[in-house]
């Protein structure tokens, strides 16, 4: 029995150890699967981040190109509008100033000529009227003087007209010079706008070149990152493969070890069972022998004495029973005798052997016993 208990305890311990090893192997497999899932999630997360970065960079590049193109278009439109407005303003101003100057000069000349003509006509009329009244000599002198005055006035008018023309010419030249200066300024502004436009175009080209170079750098970096990611993935896959191979080898070793331990435990358990069966057979044989010996054993002195005392007690009990039976017979006979005496003294009712509970009244029992009172005539019971 002790060996069987020891064998059972060893089997239980071995099974618990095997269960712990199996749980450890399952935990290792679960941990490896969790690491694989985590690596896959990290890879997917990196790919998503890289895709988001590429999309964001592409969006930023497109937005920068749109802003640059919009800025260039706005600057071109603004420069063209300023140039057109300046040219239109200068042309309108020059035309209005030239027309005003010419009209003013023409009006001044016309007014001067009209005044001179009116004065000359008035002078001729006066001279003609006075010449009729004056003498011919004086008339001639006056006519000569008038001619001289007319010539002088004509000369003066011509000189004034020439001076006015010179002044108008000078003013016109000044205005033309001023307009030429304004035109030169506008041409300079146009040239500056053109230079600004060319500078902006060169900046745009530089920005485009920079953007293209940045895109190329990002593409190279992306390719480099992809190669590094592929290298890391290959290294990780190789590590995972190595871990899987190592785990499979360890699992196979553990399985072989467990199988060997199980075979040993089964052999030990079978041997323990065989030994237990042999022990059980031996114990059964011992129990049978002991039972046979117990059944065939001799009586002990104390048992014999006990049996003798019990037999004496039985004999005494039987004698006591016989004594009680004899007393009962005596009491019954005494009861019958008393009944007969009662019947003789008190009538035939009730008769001996007949009990009529409906007619007879119960006599009081002063002693409160079950038996009737015997009275002074009764004799004492025989001694046992």
Features:
single chain, 0% strand, 384 residues, rod-shaped, 88% helix, mainly alpha
Shape: rod-shaped
Please give the largest β-sheet.
none
> For the residues shown, what is the average pLDDT?
77
Count of individual beta strands:
0
Q: What structural class do helix, strand and pairing data support?
A: mainly alpha
Number of helices: 3
Percentage of residues in helical conformation: over 70%
Uncertain regions spanning at least 5 consecutive residues: 359-384
Taking the alpha carbons of the first and last residues, their distance comes to 65 Å
Radius of gyration: 80 Å
Beta-strand portion reads: under 5%
Instruction: Give helix and strand order, one letter per element, not per position.
Output: HHH
Helix and strand topology:
Elements: H1 2-133, H2 136-295, H3 301-346
Describe the fold and architecture.
This protein has helices at 2-133, 136-295, 301-346. By secondary structure, it is an all-alpha fold. Helix 1 (2-133) runs antiparallel to helix 2 (136-295). The longest helix is centred in the middle third of the chain and has 160 residues, at 136-295. The protein is rod-shaped and about 240 Å long. The two termini are 65 Å apart. The model is unreliable at 359-384 (pLDDT under 50).
TL;DR of this structure?
The protein is mostly helical and 384 residues long. The protein has helices at residues 2-133, 136-295, 301-346.
